[in-house]
Amino acid sequence: MSVAPMLDWTDRHCRYFHRLLSRRALLYTEMVTTGALLHGDVPRHLRFDAAEHPLALQLGGSEPQDLARCARLAQDWGYDEVNLNCGCPSERVQRGAFGACLMHEPRLVADCVKAMVDAAALPVTVKHRIGIDRTEDYAFVRDFVGTVADAGCRVFIVHARNAWLKGLSPKENREIPPLRYDVVARLKQDFPQLTIAINGGLAGDAAVHEQLALVDGVMVGREAYHNPWWLARWDEQFFGAQPSALTREQAEELLVDYMERQAAAYGTHWYAIARHMLGLRAGLPGARRWRQVWSDHRLKHLPAREVMALARIRPEPVAA
What we know:
The protein is α/β, with parallel strands linked by helices. Helices cover 44% and strands 15% of the residues. It folds into two domains: 2-239, Aldolase class I (TIM Barrel), CATH 3.20.20; 248-311, Four Helix Bundle (Hemerythrin (Met), subunit A) (Up-down Bundle). The protein has an eight-stranded parallel β-barrel with strand order 1-2-3-4-5-6-7-8, surrounded by six helices.
């Protein structure tokens, strides 16, 4: 089980929160481009809390030597895995000649993987789609996986939709191309020696268990973000661990502790962290008011602990 890399969402604060809820789930960074690491502020992009392990760094790029240098950085900074993005369909990513458009160049992807494998001792994985544009040709994704596997990639995370490179926004690309879970299951049948994980539209224990009977892993994106309390069941449901004794209130308090440490160490305002937990009480009475308090910019001058006190929902009086 893993939480998908999501741009502008799965920053280090989000990952710390998710780790409070699940000890076992694999967490991913937002996609970081090779250019941002090689020519930008490395600590800003790669800094994380030790509690976030196991943690994978997702890279965006298409130059083998640049990716090799970034894989070494991932190793030096203590990441547990480095992942190559071959699934993002945004036009900005296409202009950089990486993301989903790389599926058209499996030999180049293989060269990138080989360079990273040679440069670092970390597992090198690839996240990709099942096809490009409206062509639904299984041989396309089968040959892509086969070519990249020959270069040393043993783990493939497969978003079970095509990527339409023209005419759809990234959001529409997560919703409009039809989900075809059967394609991912077929990849597992054809490549039993590889680890195949599935991504795309999955929500709820039953849907995950259904896929885990066919493939090796499940990656969840927006459902995990918007309904984070689901993660508190993952260790028991999918890893066979003891049920978590953590309550939502305790999770909130632990995140407030983290907010205070981040403010003291880096000057980070609690408001930048609180946004990631706004779904914590989804479905509970009073959740809307709690969410409104934590997202009220007029309260930004208050310490996080005072905001928590304001947000806490008082129980309804019990009828006599």
